[in-house]
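User: Predict the structure for this protein chain, please.
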Amino acid sequence: MTAKIIHWGIAPIGWRNDDMPEIGAGNTLQHLLSDIVVAGFQGTEVGGFFPEPNILNRELKLRKLRIAGQWFSSFLIRDGLEQVEQAFRLQCSYLQQVQANVIVVSEQTYSVQGLDRNVFADKPYFNDPEWQILSNGLNHLGKVAEEYGLLLVFHHHLGTGVQTADEIDRLMKGTDPAYVHLLYDTGHIYVSDGEYMNVLRKHMDRIRHVHFKDARIDVLTNCRDQGKSFRDCFLGGMFTVPGDGCIDFREVYDFLIQHDYSGWIVVEAEQDPDVAHPLEYALIARKYIDEALLARQQPKGDESYAK
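Assistant: Here is the predicted structure, written as structure tokens:
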């Protein structure tokens, strides 16, 4: 079994959170990037506090790190394609300058992920015309992304209109596989649907970016019972890094390898950095990856799973 190259990254959200800039505000870019090196990862995704491309590229080069991609909040249904495309092109240009691979798109129309609403019971739903607007818009934005050497990968996410396996199915069916790809996030689909393999098995041919996010089942159960908001869920510790929760990433990783996945796997876990020390949890994730995943799969002398 020959694997294609996989790059291992870790997201900046464990150090600083774009939606809550007050937490982790003391963690600088240099601090974040140096921690990533210490933990043995190859790169990261762009955070909202990252500087202009020339400064970022210098800091990355000093540490031999790479940028995988960046989140983009799309409001195709609310604002229309013309307005969204303007912001999308600006972000694509930035990502092109820092030599990223993907732009991560999430449709945020009606999203409750930033509101004080029950993320389990109050998620939004799209009607048929809205689904058509979303699908057509994504097809166009996917072509735009290609102009900048990027892949558009759609992020299914708690508290949005594309959260469940059924909604992911509908999005994949309604979009062009040549231009709209899928970001597969273990934590979001597990918390949403109670399992994480069906989407992977069904849409493996569309997956071009992966987030390894773990969940603590006891915290998840409590959050669901209490009807907590998305922010209160992650501040309460619902998410964590691989090896510290209830998801068996060996099954996920084996499936990816068996189907020749190539690209980034990015560890991501929204946590309060004052509670979950970012470097400590990055090292927990790295240890789990090395011992539970790579040690079982990597043939002797094979360099294709480089750290």
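The CA atoms of residues 74 and 270 lie 20 Å apart.
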